[in-house]
Amino acid sequence: MILVLRTDATSEQIDHIMERVEELGFEPRPIRGEFRTIIGLIGDDNKPHAEILEAIPGVEQVLRILKPFKLASREFHKPDTVVQVGKVRVGGGHLAMVAGPCAVESFEGLDAIAKRVKGAGANILRGGAFKPRTSPYSFQGLGEKGLRILRDVGDKYSLPVVTEVMDTRQVELVARHADMFQIGARNMQNFDLLKEVGQARKPVLLKRGMSSTVKDLLMSAEYILAEGNDQVVLCERGVRSFEDSTRNMLDISAVPNVKGQSHLPIIVDPSHATGRPDLIPPVALAGVAAGADGVHVEVHDCPEKALSDGPQALLPDQYDKLMADVRRLAQTFGKALG
Amino acid sequence: MILVLRTDATSEQIDHIMERVEELGFEPRPIRGEFRTIIGLIGDDNKPHAEILEAIPGVEQVLRILKPFKLASREFHKPDTVVQVGKVRVGGGHLAMVAGPCAVESFEGLDAIAKRVKGAGANILRGGAFKPRTSPYSFQGLGEKGLRILRDVGDKYSLPVVTEVMDTRQVELVARHADMFQIGARNMQNFDLLKEVGQARKPVLLKRGMSSTVKDLLMSAEYILAEGNDQVVLCERGVRSFEDSTRNMLDISAVPNVKGQSHLPIIVDPSHATGRPDLIPPVALAGVAAGADGVHVEVHDCPEKALSDGPQALLPDQYDKLMADVRRLAQTFGKALG
Amino acid sequence: MILVLRTDATSEQIDHIMERVEELGFEPRPIRGEFRTIIGLIGDDNKPHAEILEAIPGVEQVLRILKPFKLASREFHKPDTVVQVGKVRVGGGHLAMVAGPCAVESFEGLDAIAKRVKGAGANILRGGAFKPRTSPYSFQGLGEKGLRILRDVGDKYSLPVVTEVMDTRQVELVARHADMFQIGARNMQNFDLLKEVGQARKPVLLKRGMSSTVKDLLMSAEYILAEGNDQVVLCERGVRSFEDSTRNMLDISAVPNVKGQSHLPIIVDPSHATGRPDLIPPVALAGVAAGADGVHVEVHDCPEKALSDGPQALLPDQYDKLMADVRRLAQTFGKALG
Amino acid sequence: MILVLRTDATSEQIDHIMERVEELGFEPRPIRGEFRTIIGLIGDDNKPHAEILEAIPGVEQVLRILKPFKLASREFHKPDTVVQVGKVRVGGGHLAMVAGPCAVESFEGLDAIAKRVKGAGANILRGGAFKPRTSPYSFQGLGEKGLRILRDVGDKYSLPVVTEVMDTRQVELVARHADMFQIGARNMQNFDLLKEVGQARKPVLLKRGMSSTVKDLLMSAEYILAEGNDQVVLCERGVRSFEDSTRNMLDISAVPNVKGQSHLPIIVDPSHATGRPDLIPPVALAGVAAGADGVHVEVHDCPEKALSDGPQALLPDQYDKLMADVRRLAQTFGKALG
User: Fold this and answer.
1) D164, D166, D168, D171 alpha-carbon torsion, rounded to 10°
2) Closest by alpha carbon to D247, among D292, D194, D294, D313?
């Protein structure tokens, strides 16, 4: 950590700062420049009280050097983590192809979609039973009934299943039915929920928040890892921006950015990122070309009757075509599906 | 609602669209233009299935006309809602002056701060017992012990107290000790939590999410109101932006923007918005001048020893000066404190 | 165009609105709903006075249906435009591989770099002679001398050359030396400059502004096309965002988004988008996978001695490796280089 | 400046770095920590070659300490600069009240508006003769004829006049007619134009770019000051954000943020920031309360017939009311108009 002092810091202030940082367990190394003094601190940047240094009179800025996450960092764990979801491996050259409707609506509906996405090559089935909806008047999901349908359809097609958990009180129930928890973008910093899924020892699909930096995302993963659960797959699903012709903006550079800093797998979700079926396939391919460990796509066989987010779903035929292209790309780059 | 059809929509598609919208309970009124057809739909925009119209083949865009929130809207309820927090009124010309440390650290610490902010004119005491921290290694709050201290200090100085609730499982506990719930920015779309505080029948301070639009904020308020609790105070606390010299960017226009559309009071939080003590007072005054119903400021008597967010707290002397300016402004615009 | 009237619009206001829109040459078609009236306007959305409709009392919102650009739109010109830069074709399945240093520094320096990028497969040479620098104290480019060096080196290696033009007064000079103008992100809405290069009848590489929407970008292209110059290649180079670990955020969905709406080619610039050599190759490949018509990359053989933007340049060896991957991708998707 | 080295930097790399920084004129002071080495550099951060340090192998990050602007900084020039526009003073407690139509449309039109805004208390008249329009098909301004009208009307009401200059070739012409140049948001980084107005020795109203940081704004001011012209008034006019119910987002904290770092005056422009007449007055007042040195507002007596941006103009009666409030605020805070 480095303290940059104010140009007008007095020598009394500097003495006080030196004392305080020693009290906090750092070894201070001042450098007196022409215009101002900086103080290098030898010690662990991640001490809990580190942030308060900025509040000491005479300090203008605190510059952190060490990354604030540890268990999630590649410095801590060099090789790629491979997450196991049922029989499917994610990471380390294995691509997760997650597909399914936004929400579970009925057994027949999900069955028809699962059949098609399995045929196209998907290896994980998704479907929401608890739905985070902007409006209290929108369809909120089938709840436990939806979880049962998802489990049954997953079993029928030998597809492990992932579904969103929105509240700490649902964790146990969801764990009984699903192979993987999904933490949605709106809950990426619901820290109690992160701790709870960290203790539940099932793999977690952690989506990046709409205004979260890459560092924030890795810090949220750290919450799960700190509970002893290292089975975390990250997901870039687009962030908020001023561009108004797409739902969000997929930060494609987040894929190699995460992979450079962390050993955790990361997949992309072009459905939520773009909100437009015409843009989903090219953005999915871009994700794979950038090194993503998989693609998460919403598929519905009758978007105009979907109970939520119909407009952003691919039709099964469109998904077939996308998967054919993904396969060619995977082959070009020496990756395997699942 | 208005459907804008694609320029290449076929007459079969148009017939199908007309049928579907009638099935969904709307009365369609087509307008055939030179280049394309649009269809005006007579009926309630807020029907749950409305969004799926965009997924009908031949439809390019769906334009909503009605606002998606109802109970929170000024069209529904013309007069300003006045929220009662203990004996303090917020809204309708009454300003809430919320002040206190980021986190409750000890009885003595909070007592000293409360004495000063009460003296300066604050009318609601704040302090976190459950802290949403980006890092799992940061101080997470004193929990129930913190709630008790907050209650005792509030009682000692006759100040109603507000504190953050982060998880549905904490609602009952927090309700026992606090006069008002705070829903933090990271939980603005934690819908289960919104429903729970909606049922708890205590006033709620609802902070805008870091990447939430004004409409999103009002929709989240609608979740609380839909449970029968209309005692909601909104809070503009800055949104994420590219500007890197401040922590967030306070959207000053959100104040009159909300007040035009909704009857709910709205206050500003310049502490979280700027993260810089030098910017807190001018931004607080700007909020009042723009019509805000109060100001939320973090105050600490020794920021360099604060366990969280010390650098963004005002010193008690700085708060005294700010309150003197707020009083002059309030007088200029005919507002009363509390 | 559609006018959405206020819920409290009086019948006098509605009469006045009907008269005004007729005066402006539109045919009004009112639809009276339960809560409010909307008026569909038959006529050309692009009339110059259209925007003022929003200012008529009683109008709440004006919804445009037609796209505001015409010459740049795919509705106007279905097939892909192929832009000819020297002997190189860009668009319609032909990929532009633009490479070179940020700034032209010397003949020897550029010669060494050009030799390497030509060897790797680049087909257009870039290099700045006029540099838009944030600081007046930074290196501002060699000016005309730089243009001459660029021309000579381009000729030596049979590479057409592209260079930035920053000011209308430089257009003639740049046109004498370069094969293609570059309009930088900061000048995307320098409308006088757009008109000037539109009249110059040389191909233009138009970079998206840091806070411009896709629509804004196409409107700026429209300025050039409206002067009779249809040889425009667009460039996605990242937009400003809150993410602070990369220089900008490349909007990958802009590639298919532009290609759906416009016949103009679009390339990606991962150098300016990411500002980090480790992220440039994966983001470049993502661009090609998403359908981009080329890649613009800065290459320098000694970044630590570059006079500008050294940190974001690839080394020649890194560029070799990237081009090998681009070739495999191009083959996978049936594209040709140049 | 501080170099943060990579954790895996070799001792050869460190030696090379030490040599290079000495070559570049800095005195290096290494601090060897537990995990990595940092090197403090004694010397001037603003040397032109400073940025290339990041490209030296083994360097992970370069942290600048000194501000990159000098002439614009308050450290360089402590007292507030007072800019003289005709007989009106701006800054140092004097408020500029700039008002007028978006575009000059006719003598009669401008005359009628000028009469009203003068009556209300405006002290500088604005009006565009060269208009930067997103669409090439929109009204582009009256050009020289517009400048003449502006001059004549300004003289008639003894109001100094400000108008936008968009191109270096217009500088001389505009200087002949106007008392102050306006550099619009889209041209904030048109560096040739900044140099040209820097040499013209007339006051300049420099608007913040839509995606420019406060530092970028001050760097652009530095371009003008570096040419010897210190008569620069900055203007916060809103930045691009994800909020879609307002045209831009006014960064209210930019006002005190600029005033802390720079001696230059700064005003706010709520017209362009919000784009909505209902939000202009409260946001204008917020600006004054935050310490702005003036307010820039568009006023039109018949917005529905305005040739550009009618919907964001105040009516003269609304402007009267706003000015009455501004006067009370100014009095409260001890400021004078003009």
Assistant:
1) -20
2) D313
pTM, two decimals, is 0.93
- Token pair 């420019």 is found at D212
Q: Do B42 and C31 touch (CB under 8 A)?
A: yes
Q: Which residues pair with B124 in a beta bridge?
A: B98
**Predicted complex ipTM:** 0.92
β-pairing verdict for B2-5 and B59-63 = antiparallel
Burial (CB count within 10 angstroms: exposed 0-12, middle 13-18, buried 19+), residue C288: buried
Over range C287-313, report the average pLDDT.
89
The pLDDT of residue C84 is 98
Q: Is the predicted pLDDT of residue B46 greater than 70, yes or no?
A: no
Q: For residues D316, D317, D319 and D320, what is the CA-based torsion angle, rounded to 10 degrees?
A: 120
In this complex, is the C-beta atom of A215 within 8 Å of any C-beta atom belonging to chain D? no
Mutate to test the interface with B, among D213, D242, D252 (most CBs of B within 10 A): D252
**C-chain residues near D169 (CB < 8 A):** 168-169, 192
Chains that touch C (3 or more CB pairs under 8 A): A, B, D
Q: Is A7 on the interface with D (CB under 8 A)?
A: yes
**Which one, of C195, C66, A241, lies nearest residue B61 by Cα?**
C66
Nearest to C128 by CA among C249, C323, C309: C309
- Interval C128-165: pLDDT, tens: 999 988 888 888 899 999 999 999 999 999 999 999 99
Best mutation target among A215, A253, A274 (most C Cβ atoms within 10 Å) is: A253
DSSP of D107-155 = HHHHHHHHHHHHHHT--EEE-BSS---SSTTS----THHHHHHHHHHHH
Show which of residues 153-172 on chain A sit within 8 Å of chain C, judged by CB atoms.
none
Within 8 A of B66 by CB-CB distance, chain C residues are 35
- Amino acid at site D330: A
Other residues' Cβ atoms within 10 Å of the Cβ of residue D263:
21
Interface test with B, best of C3, C4, C27, C38 (most B CBs within 10 A): C38
Per-residue confidence (pLDDT) for residue B69, from 0 to 100: 83
User: Which helix (H) or strand (E) is A177 found in, with range?
Assistant: helix A171-177
- Nearest-Cα distance to chain A for D116, in Å, is 37
CB-based contact (8 Å) between D40 and chain A? yes
The single-letter code of the amino acid at D254 is A
Taking alpha carbons only, the member of D183, D127, D172, D173 closest to residue D154 is D127
Mean pLDDT is lowest, of A8-12, B278-282, B306-310, for B306-310
pLDDT at A304: 78
| Alpha-carbon distances of D189 from C163, D248, D251, D253, rounded to whole Å | 18, 19, 19, 22
| Closest in D253, D289, D328 to B250, CB measured | D253
Among the partner residues C56, C195, C211, nearest to D210 by beta-carbon distance: C211
Which pLDDT does position D97 carry in this prediction?
Answer: 98
Q: Which residue of B has its CA nearest to C42?
A: B33
User: Which pLDDT tens digit goes with each residue over D70-83?
Assistant: 899 998 899 999 99
